[in-house]
Give the backbone structure.
Amino acid sequence: MNLLFNDIRVISPSQNIDTRLNILVKDGFIAEMTTSAISVDSQTKIVNSKDLVASPGLFDMHVHFRQPGQEHKETIVTGTDSAANGGFTGVVCMPNTEPAIDDVTVVEYIKSKSKGLLTDVYISAAITKERKGDHITPMIELSDAGVVLFTDDGSAVSRADVMKLAFEYAAPFDYLLSQHCEEHTITKNFAMNDGALAYKLGLKGYPSIAEEMIVARDLMIASYTGNRRYHPQHISTAGTVQLIRKAKADGQRVTSEAAPHHFVLTDDYLSTYDSNYKMNPPLRTKADVDAIIEGLKDGTIDCIATDHAPHSLHEKHVELENSPNGIVGLETSLGLSLTYLYHTGHLNLSHIIEKMSVNPRRILNLEPILLSVGSRANLTIFNPDIEWTVNKQLFKSKSQNTPFDNLALKGKPIFTINNNQCIECNL
């Protein structure tokens, strides 16, 4: 599809661009980008774009597409359909599949299923075999096969000796080690954040220190082994934000991510016992939410990542204690970020794009997306001011486990363009 966006606001933070231009997308490339009028043929769709923004395509470095092994929840095709509908042109899928992504054969399988899609699928591999925390995976082979980061996501690498060995193994190649930060011995069978509300509801709590202990430990190991690259995932507590802030000030090569639900929701929502509010790490307190927002504002937190975690209806609709953790997030992420960060004055649009497009690619050492004539069109077109109400029935994901159904938001994706493909987002 050839598209002409007339008088669109173009924001590309890495290029210091924030201006209004006319953009012609033709045969998958940016053919023209100018303040002058552009003539087009009848095969080109002309979009009145005065209310729209064009940015480098959004990128989510933390999604669960469940394939192989749990295709009843999501597949690579339905996951990328969901991503594209949410404005994402690139994602990194996590390794807690069945079997885990811990050898090259699984990597090649996922690559084969990802060909020809609008959304680019990058792959993370486990740090340890079968994600059991005991033996390091063949990182060199996995990296050579295209893996962009290593994590046992869904579980922490609990043993300090194994994590130290992983940092040492990664050192010559400067691989990125990422961590699901949870001290499992004090979170077993948790249902929500530890605190007065958990006691009142009679639910097992997950204390904030369970996250912070692993972050602190790993930062010490990363420093000891030669200032290694380290990326805590889906951080959720004020203490974790402070640990990362100090580590950055001390010169450590640490980056981090936060999910929209951790800067939008608090643990108060668990009062309804609704399993769509159950996740790992759990929803925290208002003070933690405020700290996450402050971390996004001051650069302590580099990225917004969804932790998109689809589960089928029959799995999620059980007693809260027995429900799996996680929610789908790809189709609400931009709307939540614009509503709760941009329209509240915490971040401007350039900062939102940095957190959701530029920084994830930079952390993963991927090529930056440039908006210039002759460049491949990798674009997210969004309206930052349009008001809409979330309707999970419109999701392209195979699952609908979201706490945000019927929530009024302001700002959403309109077009997603990549790989000579374009969809008009339907939300």
Observations:
- Residues 58-363 form a domain with the TIM Barrel fold (CATH 3.20.20.140).
- The longest strand covers residues 2-12.
